[in-house]
Amino acid sequence: MARVATLVELEERKRAGFVSLVGAGPGDPELLTVKALKALQNADVVVVDRLVAPTIRALAPAGARVIEVGKAPGRPSTPQARICAILVREARAGHRVVRLKGGDPLVFGRAVEELAALTAAGVAFEIVPGITAALGCAAAVAVPLTGRGERRELVLLTGHATDGAAEHDWPALARPGRTLAIYMGVGAAPHIQARLLDAGIDPQTPLTIVENGTLPRQKVLTGRIADLVALVGRHRIRGPAVIFIGAHPLRAAAAPVLVEAA
Amino acid sequence: MARVATLVELEERKRAGFVSLVGAGPGDPELLTVKALKALQNADVVVVDRLVAPTIRALAPAGARVIEVGKAPGRPSTPQARICAILVREARAGHRVVRLKGGDPLVFGRAVEELAALTAAGVAFEIVPGITAALGCAAAVAVPLTGRGERRELVLLTGHATDGAAEHDWPALARPGRTLAIYMGVGAAPHIQARLLDAGIDPQTPLTIVENGTLPRQKVLTGRIADLVALVGRHRIRGPAVIFIGAHPLRAAAAPVLVEAA
Questions:
Q1: A residues 228-257 lying closer than 8 A (beta carbon) to B
Q2: CB contact burial A77-115 (16+ within 10 A = b; e otherwise)
Q3: Within the 120-159 window of chain B, which residues sit less than 8 Å (CB to CB) from chain A?
Q4: Looking at residues B209-213, what average pLDDT do you find?
Q5: Can you give chain B as a three-state secondary structure string?
Q6: Mean pLDDT taken over chain B
Q7: Which of B2, B35, B129 is closest, CB to CB, to A261?
Q8: Are A19 and A118 spatial neighbours (Cβ–Cβ below 8 Å)?
Q9: Which residues, including other chains, have CB under 8 Å from residue B58's CB and lie 6 or more apart?
Q10: Which residue of the set A28, A35, A44, A71 is catalytic?
């Protein structure tokens, strides 16, 4: 049996500075968890990815210091080591730091590097989960992610890797029995379509693309896996988007859904 | 281009009765989304799975009618057709109905049957996503679900099927490069361990079991995949639990985590 932190220890750590790694969800501010909202409202310092919606950042108190990090068009992105250093510095100064990341912090969020830095520096932290993009987009347009019997697995994967399009075990992904939810897949659409078709996926497999899911400018496209590249091109999809392979939206959802059939 | 519902149409549908299919998250009431909390607080009728924590049900208004459905020890579970009929009946009576399900409604939640019934009956609905168990448990005990380069996929799967232990593409699941998060896997632990080892998984692959994740009685066990059955037996794990294969918790999380090494 290993360490059990007492409540007193936890309180002491909080006074010494504390980092909440908070998932901001898919974009709609109402999709923050209550816990995430409270952490944000109590923050002294908010270290936020530039991709997080302004309506969510606006929930931080007026007195909080907001530090933007991450990627922005036409500007160099903040190196990960720099982000880690900021978190450690602000926590050591005794602040309640919220590190706000899109979606869920533990899903494709590079949380590991930040948590490792906090651990190495002896800074206490908590992780507040968020609605990850796949689940937020699926709910917004009523895409059933699993189905009894026929689809027993949901696979979240990235289309993009540091060195270009990501490689995966395509033959396994191409077999029926699972829904794929591909993050950061728009730029790699030709790669994804070619690899899945080469691996033997049924070309009629349902495809749904949700761009800017849960936001007012949400766009939904449906077709078949063999239409992926054509749809992305014709509708000028730039992302952020989630590409679902294996499911179509149910049609009676009350949310204003724009469906453009291929 | 297909149907776009106008705001007026949406308002009319709401007056005519409306179903919000709401994810209750993993257990901690603070892990409801703001949108889910509002839907619950405005409900006339709440149709709730028996597994949803009493502290979450207590968020419904005092005047709301609560209808319990689903599984309970020693009692027959409510047939799915009966649940669908209740939803349609209550919506047609003009009520704001919240259908509250553990976790996220679209992940292993049998939402499809309920949405199909609502669609067939012409009842309008919305889906409010929830923190699914894998993400809630991972955040509670700091299990990194993806890692740059080495783990580019997160697979959510069920250990249980209607007819017993669920079958999967075990050789694909056994290869490195992904984290598995297994739902309803405690009863099928011997099956899961045997199938993964037979399929050639590295016996040293990290294993983390989180029982009652995010609740005060949360329990965390860590070991290797080859220890799965022994850990479940020795610590009398009964579930609800998520079994993570491929990752261990980071140690500095501030949440009171009980880690028992194998």
A1: 250-257
A2: ebeeeebbebbbebbeeebbbbbbbbbbbbbbbbbbbbb
A3: 122-132, 135-136, 138-140, 142-149, 152-158
A4: 97
A5: CCCCCCHHHHHHHHHCCEEEEEECECCCHHHCEHHHHHHHHCCCEEEEECCCCHHHHCCCCCCCEEEEECCECCECCCCHHHHHHHHHHHHHCCCEEEEEECECCCCCCCHHHHHHHHHHHCCCEEEECCCCHHHHHHHHHCCCCCECCCECEEEEEECEECCEECCCCHHHHHCCCEEEEEECCCCCHHHHHHHHHHCCCCCCCEEEEEECCCCCCCEEEEEEHHHHHHHHHHCCCCCCEEEEECCCCCCCECCCCCEEEC
A6: 89
A7: B2
A8: yes
A9: none
A10: A71
Token pair of B208, please?
């983390």
- Catalytic residue chosen out of the listed positions B14, B28, B38, B71: B71
Taking only the tens place, the pLDDT of each residue in A111-164 is 889 999 999 999 999 999 999 999 999 999 999 999 876 788 999 999 987 778
Complex ipTM: 0.90
B49 assigned to active site = yes
pLDDT of residue A37: 98
**Phi/psi-derived region of residue B199, left when phi > 0, alpha when psi is between -120 and 50, beta in every other case:** alpha
A31 falls in which pLDDT band (50, 70, 90)? very high
Give the whole-angstrom CA distance, residue B92 versus residue A4. 51
Are the beta carbons of B144 and A111 separated by less than 8 Å? yes
**How distant, in Å, are the alpha carbons of A166, B29, B218, B242 from that of B136?**
27, 12, 12, 10
Q: A5-9, A86-90, B18-22, B95-99 — which is least confidently predicted? A: A5-9
DSSP 8-state secondary structure symbol assigned to residue A76: P
Give me Rg for the CA atoms of chain A.
Answer: 20
pTM: 0.91
Instruction: List pLDDT tens digits, range A158-211.
Output: 998 777 888 899 999 999 999 999 999 999 999 999 999 999 999 999 999 999
Range scoring the smallest mean pLDDT among A142-156, B57-71, B204-218: A142-156
What was the pLDDT predicted at A99? 97
Q: How long is chain A?
A: 262
Which of the following is catalytic: B49, B101, B219, B227? B49
Instruction: Report, as an integer, the average pLDDT of B86-95.
Output: 96
User: Which residues of chain B neighbour A133 with C-beta distances below 8 Å?
Assistant: none
Closest chain A residue by Cα to residue B157: A153
Indicate the pLDDT class of residue A257, thresholds 50, 70 and 90. very low
Q: In the 8-state DSSP scheme, what is residue A94?
A: T
Which amino acid is residue A5, in one-letter code? Answer: A
* Mean of pLDDT values over B47-75: 89
User: Nearest CA to B80 among B49, B121, B40?
Assistant: B49
- Assess contact for A243 and A182: CB atoms under 8 A: yes
